[in-house]
Amino acid sequence: MKKYMSWRAQAGRQWGCAARRGGGRGARDALRTDSAGRVSRHSSVSRSAPSTPRAAMTVKQYTREEISKWDTKKENVFIIDNVVYNVTEFLDEHPGGHEVLVNLAGKDASEDFDDVGHSLDAKELMKKYVVGELVEADRVQLQKRHVAWEDSKVEGDTGFTSSWKFPVLLGIVVTVLYSYLFG
Ligand code: HEM
């Protein structure tokens, strides 16, 4: 089903520092996904100084196969939108319950996660549990719906009704009609 997505991809959605669980530089780092679902970490310090080359750290990459073979009895790892999460320490705190997460261990939980309609707070919280991303070959394209909409919009822009000629012509017709009727 849907990818809201947005989330994030084209809007330059940012992820908090999570690969280094529990802190590190916290809010000063962000994991970012681009439209292809690639994740990179950028420092907010370099963001404020655009002339300085960004120090993008490499995020650990996993294959879908690795995730599916993970020892889920020890650790609860799953994928949401090409990003890999380890929620082992979150199981008992999850407001939606422990079981729903356990059942998704080793799987791609993107649709299940979206279907619940998690809040922005939940999406903020999940950054804490990021441990990596999928290798490029295993990623899915995010925001398909959005891209399709943009494509059709571009096509529409080349049409007569969306060009400047349409309102101008309409104005002329209305003016002529008005002066013919009331002039
Ligand atoms: C790192 C991943 C996740 C985080 C941080 C997270 C966090 C949360 C939070 C904070 C809530 C409370 C409601 C809200 O704020 O939206 C919630 C509710 C819930 N979550 Fe998750 N969640 C995660 C993954 C998942 C996944 C993969 C599923 C799979 C279906 C799921 C199912 C649910 C359900 C069923 C609820 C209860 C919704 C309700 O009572 O209306 N969650 N989650």
Automatic annotation (TrEMBL):
Residues 59-135 form the Cytochrome b5 heme-binding domain. Pfam families: Cyt-b5. The chain crosses the membrane at residues 166-182. The keyword Transmembrane helix applies. Residues 18-57 are annotated as: Disordered. GO terms for molecular function: heme binding; metal ion binding. It is a single-pass membrane protein. The keyword Iron applies. InterPro entries: Cyt_B5-like_heme/steroid-bd, Cyt_B5-like_heme/steroid_sf, Cyt_B5_heme-BS, Cytochrome_b5. It is found in: Endoplasmic reticulum membrane; Microsome membrane. One of its GO terms (cellular component) is endoplasmic reticulum membrane. Residues 36-56 have a biased composition (Low complexity). Keywords: Electron transport, Endoplasmic reticulum, Heme, Iron, Membrane, Metal-binding, Microsome, Transmembrane, Transmembrane helix, Transport. Belongs to the cytochrome b5 family. This is Cytochrome b5. It comes from Trichoplusia ni (Cabbage looper).
